[in-house]
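Kindly inspect the following:
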Amino acid sequence: MSDSTMNYAIQLTGAENAHLVGVFLDDFIYRSYNVYNVLTGNENYQSVMKQMDTADQKKRDAAAVQFQQSCKQAGIRFSIHRDKSIALQELKQESMFADLVIINEYETFSNQREQPPTRFIRELLSGVQCPVLVVPSTFKPVDKIVLLYDGKPSSLYAIKMFSYLFGSLHQIPVEVFTVNGNVPGSSRLPDNKLMKEFIKRHFPKAQYIIAKGEAEELIINHLKKHKENELVVLGAYQRSEPSRWFKSSMADVLMKKLDTPLFIAHHK
């Protein structure tokens, strides 16, 4: 159970008076211990595994109880799903009927700790059927929104989805950040008039920052300088699998470099 994921979910669900579903992926394959080590290191391995499986089940049950109590204390509507098949498949299936998935960036469903983006997160993002909010392990109440816009359909789609889901968050500061590269005279937003009309309708108090240079470097440096607890909105994973072999998604880069909640939506 990730406390930070729970806290982000409660803040955002409460702000929108939404319904929160706790999806507990009780994958029958996953165990908290290394099965091979138990089988080879204990003559009475069946008894040892039974005890460890019982301990795992108690942790799973305790997590569901913690979720229930947290939701009741926060006064939000909720339900609980205990999915017992393959974790990744179950979560993708759940996403077909969800408006948003909120998940910790370190989630692995493995005994091995990985650095973000983990394999589980990458595979989820490549096939999820709704936007995903990937959150860090430390909760900080969101007090600023940064919309990354590059003029491509994927970035605008992510901004649209965020605006549709989180109307109440429009009251906190919103910033549109664009990198135009090193093209001379490129000091305006891509599709400047249309974009500003759109932003004015959905985020009437938004501020604009237009930078020139390498997008990855400028975005990371810009976000690192912020003192606010921003939530970053971006389009990602819209490319084909082979193209990701040669160039990482911006979401991958931000997960590696920053501890910032990322709202990720991809336009297929």
Q: What stands out?
A: Residues 238-247 have pLDDT under 50 and may be disordered.
